[in-house]
Amino acid sequence: MHNGNGIRHDAGHSFSSQPDLVLPTQSVQNQIHELAKTLPPPRKQNTACDACRSRKVKCNRIAGQDKRHQHCLSKNYPCTHYVQQATSEKKRATAARRPRNLSVTASPSLSSVSSHSSPVDNGSPPYAKASFNFSWGNLRPGAIPGVSMNTTSAQLLVYLFSPPDSPSEPGNIYSAVKSRPALYADWGDEAPKLDDETFRAEFALDLVEVYFQIVHTRIPLLNPLQFRNRLNLVSKSFVPFRTDPLHPALVATVLAWGAKFSEHPLLVADRSRNGGQSRIAKALLDRVRELAEALKVHRIPHNDHVVISLLIEPLQCQKPDKEPGFHGFWLTSGIRNLLGLQINHKSVMATIQDPEARGTMIFAWWMACLCDAFSAFYYRRKPILDEDDYDIDFYTADPNSPDDGAPSPREQLEFLGYYRAAHDLARISRRIARLLCRPSTEEGLPLEDLIRTMDDLDEWRKRHLRKVGVPQQQESRWDFVTAVSACASDAQYHVMWTGLFFAVDEVGIRDRDNSLSPSEMNQIETKKRKLYSEGLDAALRIAGLAGVLTQNGYLKLDPAVMHVSIIQAGQLLAKSARPEVSACIDALEQYSYAYEEALEYAQEIRKTYEHTSVHGPEFAEMASAVRALRVPAGGAGTDDMNVDQAAMRHSPNGSLQDYIDF
């Protein structure tokens, strides 16, 4: 029971007998008061006008007037405050540029921006229209001069493609000033062409097409036709749009994605100058994040902001300790935006009349939901969402959609059952992630939870893997989307086994009451051997898939979908001293074309393999299982299982090459 002041007290008891709020004693209050008196006084704000400031005369304000001062009035001087205004603007700009200490919530991917990008979208739920009454034009651009929600795409390109301030400071990219050609030196010999407006527009259009050819097929979040029509780069006049412009942060994000994979001569020259990595792509990523923060993408729930957030997350470096504060930040922001729009409510989703906007938000919700579950397991963090946080049906293709040709990427994935299978796997991932982030699990993973998880994975394999994984025989040729989707779905299941193996190797297995009988100890060892068998089998399978994709050059075009699977498979094979690890190393080296950190992983895995190939496998809690199942050199397998023979069907040199006819 609460009183009017918000302080609780129970019926039948006096307020003084059971207080919930403990107030400081009189002596403590006196100490705080005395301490406060020793603090320095706040700095007095200098409000002198320009005339008094230049003459160094005390400037007393007339009572009842905000700007007029006594000295100015008596001398008939103009009472202006231009210096004070400029100082205030400079302070605000400096504060906006100051690095933010963002909280880290780990994670590693998501349909069209709605057909209208106005602040109150025709496809937005009534909740958004009623509760978020704001104007895009009133948003301050922060540290980005001349960029606002009314900025045209042509104007935005001036900022996005401006060079570093100086060749000696390549990290300082927050300049929208049109610079001399010499300032483009770090970006390659072709970069000075970016000073030309026509070249900038042509380059941007090339990046947009690369995005839709490569990224959109894996993360179909945008409507290509609508985006191209609203981009409007043909006009050279810097006049604000009379119709809804594309969100500047969305345009920047699409261009940054294109720069990751494009082989435009400008980017080829940039990579050749900088050791295979593109400084232009890195600069665009930094500007995307700065632009998104300045335009409050992470703070204001809106359809566009959902899409932008979910597209930025996989665009970034995928190594958690590489860019502290960014890994997982934009995924979390996208989920917050979705919850703010109440997209998790079926009743709200049903009110969106525009089919395109509704499909976008449903697709975005499920991609965010799945990414949250899987990344929580991969990076050992507590998932943001749980099953009781939503009641909407997972994405299904519209049965009433007109038959105007080939189905969209979303429809292709749904027809093949990917979403249903992924959601079932996400439930398993979410549950084991919650277990692994508990402090009590540091003493060991409960045996019954391990058994349940392994049984669930076995059941998932029986129900879904034949439908969504890579089949053993494929009669017709696959297209790019079907091939990489099947490989990714196949690997996503198998990496659950490798991740579970590493978790048990780290924390071990325990009983609930920490009192294990001999039969329970024997059961634990049996489960460990099965887990190692499944984990190694899964790692070899992923290595085989990675080898096929590498040979076809597809991993140069992967938007951070297969990276975790390949890394974990490579680590397990390297620690097991398995030569098949070479397929994962080659795959990560190809991956580094777009994700620089993949090369670091490849080097670490190679170093681990070189060590274990001499000294033997090195594990912690799983060491006994590895020794029991390891096949001695030139010897036969154990009675339990010959792991080498059981897993060879997934070797890169085995029959998997014949499974897929690309």
Sequence stretches where pLDDT stays below 50 over 5 or more residues: 1-26, 39-43, 94-143, 166-179, 235-242, 396-403, 632-662
Structural class label: mainly alpha
**Strand line-up across the major sheet:** 1-2
Question: How large, in whole angstroms, is the Cα Rg?
Answer: 30 Å
Q: Which of globular, elongated, flat, extended, rod-shaped describes the shape? A: globular
Through-space gap between termini: 68 Å
Helix-residue proportion: 40-55%
- Estimate the strand proportion: under 5%
* Count of separate structural domains: 5
Mean model confidence by pLDDT: 76
Query: SSE order in H/E notation?
Result: HHHHHHHHHHHHHHHHHEHHEHHHHHH
The count of β-strands is 2
What is the helix tally? 25
Region (Disordered): 1-20, 90-124
InterPro entries: TF_fung, Zn2-C6_fun-type_DNA-bd_sf, Zn2Cys6_DnaBD
Keywords: Metal-binding, Nucleus, Transcription, Transcription regulation
Domain Zn(2)-C6 fungal-type: 48-81
Can you walk through the features of this model?
- Residues 1-20, 90-124 are annotated as: Disordered.
- With 662 residues, this protein is an all-alpha fold.
- The protein folds into five domains: 1-39, no CATH class; 50-97, no CATH class; 104-139 and 300-402, no CATH class; 141-295, no CATH class; 456-658, no CATH class.
- 51% of the residues lie in helices and 1% in strands.
- It is built from 25 helices and two strands.
- Helix 21 (563-575) packs parallel to helix 23.
- Mean pLDDT is 76; it is low at 1-26, 39-43, 94-143, 166-179, 235-242, 396-403 and 632-662.
